[in-house]
Design a protein that fits this description.
Length: 190
């Protein structure tokens, strides 16, 4: 099926482009969402007009979201989660968790549908892309630690975010054995 895109569609094309797509994708998604129309001779006459209107809208949206892209690009998010000995998480870090963490850290609202990543199911470092517009796709870094591990974190760079799993533990909490009373001094070893 050939369609004429009315709006920008991520990973497909820009407004005014003529694309050949699968029948089901066109019939069930593009046409009902009013992202495209069938490529008829009448629609093809309006392609240049749609392309120029799309360019104007895209430029306005890019200039509006440029500030947000600068704030989100390079953000480092840190999550603490329960994990097994092999590093597999008991649960996962989802796009909703990442969207919430970005919102808390940057004070900008990002929807979970804008985050391009698979659920994270193991300890380590990962990257996710935030689709603001077809041209603005900033990247965030995600670090997942095992619960109870102490990770060296640069001040002001990250916040500890507990995962949805059971047994949440805040990063500020310290085990009772490590807390010393004010009057106690360490013994000298000779």
């Amino acid at each position: 099926m050939k369609v004429l895109l009315i709006k920008d569609v991520y990973k497909l094309g820009r407004a005014g482009d003529l694309k050949k797509v699968a029948d089901g994708y066109g019939r069930n998604f593009l046409l009902p969402q009013r992202l495209a129309v069938l490529a008829t001779p009448g629609a093809m006459k309006t392609a240049e007009k749609i392309r120029s209107q799309g360019e104007v809208k895209r430029t306005a949206l890019n200039s509006e979201l440029k500030d947000l892209a600068d704030h989100v690009n390079g953000v480092m998010l840190s999550f603490t989660a329960k994990a097994g000995e092999t590093g597999k998480l008991y649960g996962s870090i989802t796009t909703q968790d990442v969207a919430t963490a970005i919102q808390e850290q940057t004070h900008y609202e990002v929807k979970r549908q804008q985050i391009d990543m698979q659920p994270i199911r193991e300890v380590g470092e990962f990257k996710a892309h935030v689709r603001l517009t077809i041209d603005l796709v900033p990247e965030v870094k995600i670090v997942v630690h095992r619960e109870g591990e102490v990770e060296a974190v640069a001040p002001g760079k990250t916040e500890e975010k507990p995962s949805k799993g059971r047994g949440r533990k805040k990063a500020e909490e310290a085990p009772a054995e490590e807390v010393k009373s004010a009057g106690e001094t360490p013994a000298k070893v000779e």
